[in-house]
Structure formats: structure tokens, C-alpha cells
Amino acid sequence: MPYQLLEQHIKKHVEFSGEELKTFCDHFHLKKVMKKQLLLRYGTVCQFEGFVTKGCFRLFTIDHEGNENVLYFAAKDWWVTDIDSFTNQTPAFLSIQALEDSEVLLVNKSDKELLYERMPKVEKLFRIMTQKTLVSLQRRLIRNHSLTAEERYQHFISTYPEIAQKLTNLQIAAYLGITHEFVSKIRKKISKGQ
Predict the structure, then answer these.
(1) What does the alpha-carbon distance between residue 118 and residue 120 come to, in Å, rounded to a whole number?
(2) What string of DSSP letters covers 22-61?
(3) DSSP-assigned beta bridge partners for residue 56
(4) pTM of the prediction?
(5) pLDDT per residue over 141-157, tens digit each?
(6) Alpha-carbon distance 138 to 8, whole Å?
(7) Distance, CA of 4 to CA of 26 (rounded, Å)
């Protein structure tokens, strides 16, 4: 089942033959990650790119004052990595933690490079996914600069309802860059229909 999800995801972006799909998927291995377990710890080198097949992860940093800042959440059918650390093989600035019991298909750097060499379609696939990621990050930056905290919250819960219901106020606040008290206040206001 996990590999079928990866195959379905690939087919949305690039047309692969059955043999190409098998070759691609053979370079990934399944890892089960328990709730609260780290998939990547800040300061270690990220050795993988992962495709989430079950559960949800958060990618975050902790600032000098101990505040958590969430870069993004990765749920089923999303990719997860510290792209800077993985690409440059430098210590990670991010930690990646499972928010619930999760499963992820991982590919290491050498296998990914091998796929690039043997299957030109793989480069096209990752180029398309990288472009989509950049668009998403750009849109998020624009929202953070142009929308109120309440508008950002509304956008988040309407765009990612399945993720939002798995998160605590603290986690949502760390993603939106606001206090968890403000998230509580917004949720109360919404529940009262104001």
C-alpha cells in the first residue's frame, strides 16, 4: 500500500512505465516513526528525502529564546526533508518530528543521484515538485506579510482541514507566527459564530 501511494503521486506529475515505477520505488525504503519520535534532529546531516504514506510530521526550528517555529507540516502524500542539509550534506537547521504514529518512504542521496543518471524522467519529476514547493513557500510569505493573523488562521484551516484537526493550538501558532493564546481566541470567536 505505501508504495502504491508513491506510484499514484508520481503519476500525477510524470508518466512512468510500469518498469520505471518499479525501479523508482525500489530505491525507497519504508520507515515507521512513532508519535513524538524525531525523524531528523537539528545539527545532524539529513540523509533522506521522504514521502509520507501515513500520519503527519512537523518541520521546525527552536530559536535562542526557546520558541518553536514551524516551517511546515507534512501529512500523507507530502514530501519531507531538510532540503538544505540533504542537498549540501551540512548540519540540519530543522528537526522533523512525527505528530502521530507515521510511515514514510525514504530515499538517500546516492540512490537519488543514481535515479537521476538512469532515468531522466526522475529529474523532471523532482523539478516539478521543487517548483510547486517554491510556489507554496512564496505564497505563504506573501500571506504572512499581507494578511492579518486571523486571516492566516482561516486560510490554514480551510486549506488544510485534515492537518489542522490533528494539531494543538501551540503547533498552529508556531506555524502562523502568533501566540497560542491568540489562536485560542480566534477559535472561540469562530465557534461563537462571530
Answers:
(1) 7
(2) HHHHTT-EEEEE-TT-EEE-TTSBP--EEEEEESEEEEEE
(3) 75
(4) 0.90
(5) 899 899 998 899 999 99
(6) 26
(7) 12
pLDDT at 194: 60
Angle value at C-alpha 82, between 163 and 35, nearest 5 degrees: 45
Q: What are phi and psi of 43, to 5 degrees?
A: 95, -15
Single-letter amino acid code for the residue at 146:
S
Please report which confidence band the pLDDT of residue 43 belongs to, taking 50, 70 and 90 as the band edges: very high
SS3 category, 175: helix
Q: At what angle do helices 169-176 and 180-191 cross, to 10 degrees?
A: 110
User: What cell was used for 173?
Assistant: 501558532
Cell of 121: 524522467
Q: Which amino acid is at 137?
A: L
Q: SS3 letters for 102-154?
A: EEEEEECHHHHHHHHHHCHHHHHHHHHHHHHHHHHHHHHHHHHHHCCHHHHHH
What structural domains and CATH numbers belong to the chain? 2-118 (2.60.120.10)
